[in-house]
Design brief:
By secondary structure, the protein is mainly alpha-helical. The chain folds into 2 domains: 204 residues, no CATH class; 138 residues, no CATH class. The protein is 51% helix and 8% strand. Strands 1-3-2 form a 3-stranded antiparallel sheet. A 3-stranded mixed sheet has the order 6-7-8. The chain has a two-stranded antiparallel ribbon with strand order 4-5. Zinc ion binds next to loops.
Length: 354
């Protein structure tokens, strides 16, 4: 495959402007378009590259992302209401969104997303969600009131796929954090604006954490298994850790999904110092070595804790995050208040362990 030049600075600005327009000017009767934008941004990180090439995405893969996004959102919200009815947030101005019943059926039958994925019912649910994606948001996302901004994707010659246009995957990768934050914030405001949700949403509710935050209880279940594979040590300073925290190695602010192999045990202090920075290459080396040696143990523990297991996706995310950091000359966190630039060693490490 020949490599194309990535989008120019001007093309990047135009792209972001169009994303902003579809989010602010598009007509929204349900939350599907936000989910669709988040899904293709995530798939661009996992499957795309940084040159200007087109990228085919199976609609089924988008459908799986939908089920994952709506899984947490369709959990009962807050305290149960007086009449005992199931308190699920509305995702639609009219009747509840159809994706909710697909997800709710899986939840009733299998309990957790991990078990649902392994069940024979999974394929049919994904097919149903894929049909919904095709019928509802797919060909509406790029439509404004009087204008069609078809800059993101078109039908692919490959049946069942869409094709991201030249430069789109590269732009989604470059602006992933910004696009995710925009889409999540619009999604949250939409849910807050629906009258049907006003009873559920008290003035103090932490809606953002519920909709998009890390699954804290699942992360806690990883403490013991991660302490086992890290021999009771903090991943970063390698000192003994007694009551540590679970940290996202590629920071949550850059990639807000819980992936099992991205989780590490660390001191509260180390975690706080690292904050939203990428970890220095010496830490990357240790993290890759840990995953190579204990990848299976981490997978097993994560399945029990109901956390997504996708080692190759996690590696793609790390490759994307470090390449992005390098392009921005980002500082990486070493220890305490010390930071350092990337040397380029990260590329060799990712190839060596890839
Ligand atoms: Zn530490």
């Amino acid at each position: 495959m020949t490599s194309l030049p990535g989008p120019t600075a001007e093309e990047q600005v135009v792209f972001l402007g169009k994303v902003e327009r579809i989010l602010s000017e598009g007509q929204y009767v349900a939350t599907y378009k936000y989910a669709l934008l988040l899904a293709i941004a995530d798939l661009a990180v996992k499957l795309g590259c940084d040159d200007g090439s087109e990228l085919d995405l199976p609609i089924r893969a988008i459908a799986e992302e939908f089920i994952e996004l709506y899984w947490r959102q369709s959990a009962p919200y807050g305290n149960s209401v007086a009449d005992g009815s199931y308190n699920i947030l509305q995702q639609n101005t009219g009747r509840q969104a159809a994706i909710i019943s697909i997800v709710d059926n899986l939840r009733q039958a299998h309990g957790t997303l991990i078990r649902a994925r392994q069940s024979p019912a999974w394929d049919a649910a994904v097919a149903e969600a894929a049909r919904l994606v095709r019928e509802m948001p797919l060909w509406r996302l790029q439509r404004l009131r009087n204008e069609v901004l078809d800059f993101l994707y078109a039908e692919s010659p490959v049946a069942g796929n869409i094709r991201l246009k030249h430069g789109v995957a590269a732009n989604l990768r470059r602006f992933h954090a910004i696009i995710v934050r925009l889409a999540q914030s619009e999604w949250m405001h939409f849910i807050q604006s629906l009258p049907g949700n006003s009873q559920l949403l008290g003035p103090t509710s932490d809606l953002s954490q519920f909709l998009f935050g890390a699954d804290r209880s699942a992360l806690l279940r990883m403490s013991t298994p991660l302490a086992d594979v890290q021999k009771g040590q903090c991943l970063y300073c390698e000192r003994r850790v007694d009551s540590g925290e679970i940290d996202h190695f590629v920071p949550w602010s850059r990639y807000p999904r819980d992936l099992a192999h991205n989780l590490v045990l660390a001191h509260k202090q180390c975690n706080r110092h690292k904050s939203d920075l990428l970890a220095a290459e010496v830490h990357l080396d240790r993290w890759l070595a840990r995953n190579q040696a204990h990848g299976n143990a981490i997978s097993d523990a994560a399945r029990t804790a109901n956390i997504i297991v996708d080692l190759s996706g996690t590696m793609s995310v790390a490759g994307w995050a470090y390449a992005h950091g390098a392009s921005l000359h980002a500082a990486t966190w070493l220890q305490g208040d010390e930071v350092e630039p990337l040397s380029g060693r990260w590329q060799f490490l990712l190839i060596e362990y890839g």
